[in-house]
């Protein structure tokens, strides 16, 4: 139990600084009280709120009643976060952080404690890609009958609409946006593969652990084909490729290496990566970060 004050980290507050009457802002305002109530209900002792933390959740480092360290997470409400606990329960610690407890009323997730400051991004690129591939492979399991996860086809409809809206704000990217939009419509229908995916996989989502060296965190789970998860890995550290010489050839080699090592079709991995790069590029450009957006769009042209 803890009586220490709980304050959301500034990064989370800044990320959610929209309409004060929106449900997310109301959630943020109530968060200190909700966290304290959960600490009391589960007999947890607060050590500290993790800072700077992320833009999609509050994570508090806590001790359980028996002194065992753990992490108490409150994801920002939304469809993806509502399914995070279900995915972690399905994996049961295999390749991912272990879920110890959860509560549907406030979305709280009590997780095993990992080394939050040490991700695969701390490793040299070749080693990081190798470890990432080994980790994500473990997550690809058949979803249980009646599972609660959305499919890639379902996620596609909303994503295509968003791409059309943001793409209109970046006219120069028109041809790339058209190609990405068509790929996104066609790709889910072109595969019968239905496995549980992390849904937001990248090197920064794999943290050092005690049980095993590396464990995935922060899924946005979805059911579909494995190439979707690998596309995030192709995009990892893309800025380094854009800044260096021979970046286009290196990007294509990365696609081939990841696809071949995990028995995924190269063309489908290339297509999913192109879509994600374009979607992120126009989103960043429309939000005002033109430099980052243009780099993503340049990377997409290499594919």
The low-confidence parts are none
How large is the radius of gyration? Answer: 20 Å
> What structural class results from the helix and strand content?
alpha+beta
> Could you say which overall geometry the principal axes of the C-alpha atoms support?
globular
- Named at the architecture level, the CATH assignment of the largest domain is Alpha-Beta Complex
Main beta sheet strand tally, sense and closure: 5 strands, antiparallel
Order of helices and strands: HHEEEHEEEHHHEEEEHHHHH
Q: What portion of residues is helical?
A: 40-55%
For this structure, the quaternary state is single chain
Number of domains: 2
Report mean pLDDT, rounded to a whole number: 91
Give me the count of strands.
10
Q: Numbering strands along the chain, what is their spatial order in the largest sheet?
A: 1-2-3-5-4
CATH topology of the largest domain: Aminoglycoside 3'-phosphotransferase, Chain: A, domain 2
Explain how this protein is built.
The chain has helices at residues 10-15, 23-41, 79-91, 125-139, 152-167, 174-186, 226-235, 238-243, 247-261, 266-286, 290-302, and strands at residues 45-49, 57-63, 69-75, 99-102, 109-112, 115-119, 195-197, 206-208, 214-216, 222-224. It is of the alpha+beta class and 303 residues long. The protein has two domains: 10-113, 2-Layer Sandwich (Phosphorylase Kinase, domain 1); 118-302, Aminoglycoside phosphotransferase (APH), C-terminal lobe (Aminoglycoside 3'-phosphotransferase, Chain: A, domain 2, Alpha-Beta Complex). It has a five-stranded antiparallel sheet with strand order 1-2-3-5-4, with helices on both faces. A hairpin with a 5-residue loop joins strand 8 and strand 9 (214-216). Helix 5 runs antiparallel to helix 6, helix 7 runs antiparallel to helix 9 (247-261) and helix 7 packs across helix 10. The chain starts with 9 loop residues before the first helix and ends with a helix. One of its GO terms (biological process) is secondary metabolic process.
């Amino acid at each position: 139990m803890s009586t220490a004050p709980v304050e959301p980290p500034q990064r989370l507050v800044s990320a959610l600084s929209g309409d004060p009457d929106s449900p997310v802002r109301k959630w943020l305002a109530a968060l200190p009280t909700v966290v304290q109530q959960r600490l009391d209900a589960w007999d947890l002792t607060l050590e500290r709120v993790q800072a700077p933390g992320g833009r999609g959740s509050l994570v508090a480092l806590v001790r359980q009643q028996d002194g065992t360290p753990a992490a108490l997470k409150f994801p920002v409400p939304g469809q993806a976060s509502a399914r995070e606990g279900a995915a972690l329960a399905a994996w049961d610690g295999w390749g991912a952080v272990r879920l110890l407890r959860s509560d549907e009323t406030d979305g709280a997730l009590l997780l095993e404690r990992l080394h939050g400051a040490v991700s695969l991004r701390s490793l040299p690129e070749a080693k990081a890609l190798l470890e990432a591939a080994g980790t994500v492979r473990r997550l690809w399991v058949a979803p249980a009958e009646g599972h609660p996860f959305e499919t890639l086809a379902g996620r596609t409809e909303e994503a295509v609409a968003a791409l059309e809206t943001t793409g209109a704000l970046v006219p120069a990217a028109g041809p790339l946006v058209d190609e990405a939009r068509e790929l996104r419509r066609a790709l889910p229908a072109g595969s019968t593969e239905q496995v549980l995916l992390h849904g937001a996989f990248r090197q920064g989502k794999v943290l050092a652990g005690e049980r095993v060296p590396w464990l995935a965190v922060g899924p946005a789970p979805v059911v579909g084909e494995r190439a979707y998860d690998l596309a995030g890995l192709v995009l990892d550290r893309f800025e380094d490729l854009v800044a260096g010489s021979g970046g286009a050839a290196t990007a294509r080699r990365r696609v081939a290496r990841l696809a071949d090592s995990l028995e995924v079709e190269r063309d489908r991995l290339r297509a999913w990566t192109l879509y994600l790069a374009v979607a992120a590029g126009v989103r960043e450009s429309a939000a005002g970060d033109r430099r980052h957006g243009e780099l993503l769009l340049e990377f997409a042209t290499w594919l």
